[in-house]
Every structure is written in C-alpha cells, then in structure tokens.
Amino acid sequence: MVSTTVHLLRHGEVHNPGGVLYGRIPGYHLSERGHEMARRVAAHLAGEPGPDGTSRPRADLALLVASPLQRAQETAAPSSEAFGLEITTDDRVIEAANHFEGLTFGVGDGSLRHPKHWPYLWNPLRPSWGEPYVEQVARMRAAVADARDRAAGHEALIVSHQLPVWLTRLAFENRRLWHDPRKRQCSLASLTSLRFEDDALAAIHYSEPVADLLPGAATTPGA
User: Cellular component GO terms, alphabetically (predicted)?
Assistant: First the structure.
C-alpha cells in the first residue's frame, strides 16, 4: 500500500484593523505575527526545533498548493522557500463565499442589527448566507484527492481557510456539516493532516505548531 499525507494548513493571522469579515475580498495580507506564524510552520515542517526545543522529522513534501487569496499565498511562501517547491494556486481551496463580506458581523453595531440582512439568516444548515457547505466539501475533497495522487508516497501541503478546512475534516469523519463556529478545531496556522493508505483515509491528526502565538490572534475576525 502507498502511504500519502495531505496537510491542510489554515493561513496565519491577517492584518484587519477594521474587524470586518473579509472573506474573498482581495488585499488582505498577513500581519507581522501572521508572517511569523508562516515562518514557524515552515520551520516545523522542515524539522527544525520549536520554541520548546522539540522537533518532528522533516516532512517529505512533494507538493505545495495554496488558495489564490493573498493571505494564503503569503502563508505558503516560507514553506515554498524551505522545501524548494513552487506554489500551485488552486481556486478549489479558496475561502467560502459569504453575503457579509466587507461588513462587521454582530448584533451591536454590526450588520445583524439591519433588517435588510435578516433574509440571509433563515437557514443555518445550508447556510443561507453563503456558499453551501456541501459545495465547499465537494471542491475541497476534489483538491485533496488531486494532491494525494500527485504526491503519492510522499506529503502534500494545502494552504486554505478555516471553514473549508473544518468542513473537510467533518466530512472525512462522517459528521454533520452544520456546526457551532465557536467550536471549530482549526486555529490560525494549524495543521489538519490526512493520512491515506492508497486512496483510503487511514487517520486524521490535528496540530498547532504556533500555539504560543495564538492568544489574542485566535479571535481575529475573518476566516
């Protein structure tokens, strides 16, 4: 059997002083801490010791894929340099489309206080405010399958976004896609690693290589 691992990496912290839900809006780049997260993840995958002095074996990366959005491309850049891999841009791993892009999302002074937005909230199971969960899963699983086949016998890294990564995990675990966003296990610059034996999923492993950088960053608006 051929063992292949596809790592799903959520991008690092984004510079977002306005606190808006930026979604697919272009121009949102990593913050200074986000760039440090990206560098630390690359070092982690390359087998360099972390802040606690521990390290993992160097990843056998054969493929690097990223969402076309700037924050994902910037997160992928240090890994591209560390492993000498070109970044393959794949629209299938982009952030989910969302009606509330560019707006603050909340009840107080956020968009939820305006009745014109209420029709988009009628069905959280779909969800009615954006790209259906099942469509996100379909495109993500297709991208994962392609990465698995292209990196067969090695490892692949896909840089994506919180919601698509979390939904992909839920789908592979045969769990319902509707969920409480506050309970997603997918922090900034985290790795959701899918290990396959041939084309069958054998295990899922979640890790946070930059856990010490997360306080305060984990609540940054956006995904």
Answer: cytoplasm
CA distances from 36 to 32, 42, 62, 75, 181 (A): 6, 10, 23, 9, 25
Please compute the mean of the pLDDT values over residues 198-218 and round it to a whole number. 88
How far is residue 176 CA from its own chain's centroid?
19
Query: Which is nearest to 28 in space by CA: 78, 63, 64, 75?
Result: 75
Summary mean pLDDT of the chain = 89
* Range with lowest mean pLDDT among 39-43, 104-108, 184-188: 104-108
Q: Render pLDDT for 141-183 as a digit per residue (tens, 0 to 9).
A: 999 999 999 999 999 999 999 999 999 999 999 999 988 988 9
Which uninterrupted H or E stretch holds 42?
A: helix 32-45
- Report d(CA 111, CA 27) in Å as an integer: 22
The DSSP secondary structure of 197-217, one letter per residue, reads: ETTEEEEEEEE-TTGGG-TTT
The answer to whether 210 and 37 are in contact (CB under 8 A) is: yes
Residues making up the chain, counted from first to last: 223
Strand residue runs (E) in the chain: 3-10, 61-66, 87-89, 155-160, 191-197, 200-207
Q: What is the pLDDT of residues 73-91, one digit of tens each?
A: 999 999 999 999 999 999 9
Choose which CATH entry (3.40.50.720, 3.40.50.1240, 1.10.260.40, 3.30.70.3270) describes domain 3-104+132-213. 3.40.50.1240
